[in-house]
Write a structure and sequence with these properties.
489 residues, Phosphatase 2c, domain 1, 2 domains, 5-stranded antiparallel β-sheet
């Protein structure tokens, strides 16, 4: 606990979140009381200017002005301590109850119902105890103000029990209260008080009691809701922190740098739609003359896809290190992924082995998107072959393998469906043909420039819409054999 918290009184609270709420509630309470003070001053001024009349006001003039001064002083003290003392809420509420009680003395008709205002405002503190305390004080204070108002405020003629045949003549005295006393008309003060309490205060009391029960319930359940929200917020924060760690682990699992080889240029990029994703790419030299590379997309999103992605990437790499062909790599990985796949997830993958000395590319596809290939003359097209089933669906599959001869200067861009199926606000997809056009417009770009060009075009197309799927790219340029690459350099 910091020194500032001790000075402000925050150390006395059970939960810091309720202390912050209390400070905010105090500020709101101060604003409401200032509004009440202004309204009372306006009403007081209008009475003085005889816009309307409140009986007995000249007798209570000092009391009313004293209540206003106390209210103003209390608000000033609250601002002075920045609302960060435990007693501020009691001071502000006492000020409000005091003002309303004085008003109830002066204006005896239907003013007692104002006792519900402190109860309702107290709910903002979400403390059942505080709401009950304010409610009990309100009931007591407004009972006393009603008793005082019965004798010092307006006289309620309906509550008078006068002898039969009593005639009231208003002559010199302009108001009923003065007239009754001036004419010395006998009436029982206790009976009058009983009738005032019965017909006025009791009705307001029952209404206020109903409000009281609702306010107590609101404070209680509001308190529970805040605690529940706090728990959910802390849980979400922990989950977010854990996902950040998982994302860092996942990104660290991707190859950091491509193999240094003059025969080719290689670069990969992945942008997950959530904290963690299901896309991945991988590459490494199987031996001195053969480059293995793969791009894949796991079904689903989030943590399950990320976990399955890590497993699939590891299995594919293990198969490749055994110097298998692309079809054999996919066959072995498929059997391994089918063994323990209770969640019925699957992986689309495009795997290739490039013989760097000759440019011969062997590849196999497990239901993945066709790469875009750019010939040495700059023409762009899809490298289309038949697609086999994704990995993890059936363990008895045998994947087909294809070959393509790459000549020096040829480029290839592999991608996941997060590129072609990126959607804008109008629910239109980026599409394979648009990707082909984007790459065709960047014939002279370097590997890094081409990757950025594709990502910027996808981002511009999507606009304000959310990224729905992971966006992964893998770019390969074949420079020729070592001798050819050095000669061209």
């Amino acid at each position: 606990m910091s020194m500032s918290e001790k000075k402000s009184g925050a150390g006395k609270t059970k939960d810091h979140i309720f202390w912050e709420n209390e400070v905010q509630a105090n500020k709101l309470m101060a604003v409401l009381n200032l509004i009440t003070i202004v309204l009372f001053c306006i009403v007081w001024f209008m009475i003085k200017q005889q816009f309307f009349y409140a009986y007995g006001l000249e007798r209570l003039d000092g009391l009313f002005l004293l209540a206003l001064l106390v209210a103003i002083a209390s608000t000033g003290v609250s601002y002075k301590v920045h609302f960060e003392k435990r007693w501020v809420k009691y001071l502000l509420m006492a000020m409000l109850i005091n003002l309303l009680a004085v008003a109830d003395v002066v204006f005896t008709y239907n003013v007692s119902i104002l006792m519900i205002l402190p109860m309702v405002i107290s709910c903002r503190y979400f403390s059942t105890r505080y709401t009950m305390e304010i409610s009990l004080v309100s009931f007591a204070v407004f009972f006393l103000s009603t008793v005082m108002g019965a004798f010092f405020g307006d006289l309620d003629l309906n509550s008078l029990e006068l002898p039969l045949g009593t005639v009231i003549e208003i002559k010199d005295e302009p108001w009923l209260y003065d007239t009754v006393y001036a004419m010395q008309i006998p009436f029982d003060r206790m009976v009058y008080l009983k009738d005032v309490l019965h017909f006025s205060y009791l009705v307001d009391f029952m209404q206020a009691l109903t409000v009281f029960l609702g306010c107590v319930s609101l404070s209680y359940f509001g308190n529970k809701l805040i605690l529940r929200q706090k728990e959910m917020s802390e849980s979400a924060a922990r989950t977010h922190s854990e996902l950040e760690v998982a994302a860092n682990i996942q990104m660290a699992a991707l190859p950091a740098e491509p193999p240094r080889n003059c025969c080719f240029e290689l670069i990969g990029s992945m942008k997950p739609a959530k904290e963690v994703g299901g896309d991945f790419y991988d590459y490494f030299m199987v031996d001195a003359k053969h480059l293995y590379f793969v791009i894949a997309d796991v079904s689903g999103k989030g943590v399950p896809a990320a976990m399955f992605m890590m497993e699939a990437k590891s299995i594919l790499a293990d198969q490749a290190r055994m110097k298998k062909s692309p079809a054999e790599i996919l066959n072995g990985a498929n059997k391994a992924l089918c063994l323990h796949n209770q969640e019925n997830m699957f992986v689309t993958a495009w795997a290739g082995i490039l013989e760097t000395s000759t440019g011969k590319l062997c590849f196999a596809s497990a239901g993945h998107e066709d790469p875009v290939i750019k010939a040495a003359d700059g023409s762009v097209s899809f490298l289309r072959e038949d697609h086999d089933m994704p990995l993890g669906c059936f363990d008895l599959l045998n994947y087909s393998e294809y070959e393509r001869q790459l000549s020096p200067g040829m480029e290839m861009c592999c991608y996941t469906d997060g590129v072609t199926e990126a959607m804008n606000a109008e629910d239109k997809m980026f599409g394979a043909e648009r990707l082909l056009a984007v790459m065709n417009a960047a014939r002279e770009a370097t590997a890094e420039e081409l990757m950025e060009h594709v990502k910027k075009n996808v981002a511009a197309f999507v606009g304000e819409a959310d990224q729905f799927d992971d966006l992964t790219l893998l770019y390969l340029k074949y420079n020729g054999s070592a001798d050819q690459a050095l000669a061209s350099a």
